[in-house]
Specification:
Rossmann fold; elongated; alpha/beta; six-stranded parallel beta sheet; 2 domains
Length: 390
């Protein structure tokens, strides 16, 4: 049995982590191990979940940007556990992973989920990520939209495979009315319709646009409330805007919740006002829970949201269109239900982990059938040109 090692830099158990674990659970003919950079101990949240599922885990003691120690530690681990292939998740994993695998002659595969450009620091890391991907044996993109961005970053088309994110629909089958009651009790006045959003409170997620739309909708319809689940750097700014628009009590920022699966089936509608996306897990989760979606037409979103069939698409940043499409659905109970059912059918048929695992299995076997990788010498110099290296 061949051995795959996943290398990541996890800080919590979120969407990418669910994808990594779900894939491992469905790759029946592979032995899978997980490594993470320590991230000040935060990696334990993910690795504990992984260990509970029966997979071996390890925390790297060396970290970026001091590369030599991290490269040696990773290389020693891969040799000791006779790894046949390395799956890299994120810029840090891509750089350290590629440098560690060169002399070992094992394939290094990058999984590209998306770029946010949310700050100067992140832009530097994403620049590094784009450059490093050029020297990977393969780049797996989670959507065709992300693949176009990767090609624009200089990666050859023959290096790219598109394998969509997936979702386990059974996660949402045991919905309890108690959780609907808990949602309703979050608001001072009991609402009839809950429009939810989920994600980091960061610029690329477009929650400021949603707040502007919510103000217009709330002024015309007192049945509707809005809630955003997630944390991030924009919390203070978003809270102030909610107050300024008189939305206190009608729109809540409810923080990060690890038990969000229990609440998903009780959302009446999910809004995704993002400016950029790879393949949003939250849309797959909403569909798995039978919840319709109003989403920005960006990245991989239209690859899962079929406009008018299982959700509605709007131009990113267009408040008026967002108001219009949300209003259409909150005033049509039957259509909301129909779109939600269609969304569930879509993910069951096309976005299962079994289907994802079959695609990965075929790709990884093709890579292993090739001769040992011989990366260009330029990769040896990436460390010297990386931002923050010292």
């Amino acid at each position: 049995m061949k051995t795959i090692v996943n290398l990541t830099s996890s800080r919590f158990f979120g969407g990418p982590e669910r994808q990594m674990l779900g894939l491992a659970q469905h790759l029946d003919n592979w032995r899978t191990r997980f490594l993470s950079f320590a991230e000040e101990g935060n990696c334990c949240r993910f690795l504990e979940r992984v260990a509970q599922s029966g997979f071996d885990t390890h925390v790297l003691t060396h970290d970026f940007p001091r590369l030599p120690g991290a490269i040696r530690e990773l290389r020693d681990y891969l040799q000791a556990h006779r790894a046949d292939l390395l799956l890299c998740h994120g810029y840090k994993a891509n750089l350290v992973g590629r440098l560690a695998t060169i002399k070992l002659g094992i394939p290094a595969v990058s999984v590209s989920r998306g770029w946010t450009s949310e700050s100067w620091k992140v832009k530097c890391y994403e620049w590094l990520d784009r450059r490093t991907m050029r020297w990977m044996d393969q780049v797996v993109c989670v959507s065709h939209g992300q693949a176009r961005k990767v090609v624009a970053g200089g990666v050859r088309t023959d290096q790219i495979s598109v394998i969509h994110n997936s979702v386990i629909t059974d996660r949402f089958n045991a919905a309890s009315l108690r959780h609907r009651a808990e949602l309703l009790e979050m608001f001072p006045s009991r609402p009839e319709i809950i429009v939810a959003a989920v994600g980091r409170l960061s610029p690329e997620k477009g929650f400021g646009v949603l707040i502007e739309a919510a103000a217009q909708i709330a002024s015309q319809d007192n049945r509707v409330v809005f809630v955003i689940f997630g944390e991030g750097t924009l919390r203070g700014e978003l809270e102030q805007r909610i107050r300024d628009l008189g939305l206190t009590g009608r729109m809540l920022l409810s923080g990060f919740r690890e038990d969000l699966d229990s609440y998903f089936p009780h959302f009446d509608l999910l809004a995704l006002p993002s400016f950029t996306e790879g393949m949003p897990n939250v849309v797959l989760e909403a569909f798995a829970a039978g919840v319709p979606v109003v989403a920005s037409n960006v990245g991989g979103v239209p690859e899962v949201v079929d406009d008018g069939v299982n959700g509605l698409l709007v131009p990113a940043g267009d408040v008026a269109e967002l108001v219009d499409k949300i209003s259409i659905l909150i005033n049509d109970d039957r259509r909301r239900k129909t779109l939600g059912i269609e969304g569930r059918v879509r993910v069951e048929n096309e976005f299962s982990f079994q289907r994802q695992a079959e695609s990965y299995d075929a790709l990884l076997r093709r890579l292993l059938a090739r001769s040992a990788s011989h990366a260009p010498k330029e990769i040896e110099h990436l460390a010297a040109s990386s931002p923050g290296n010292g």
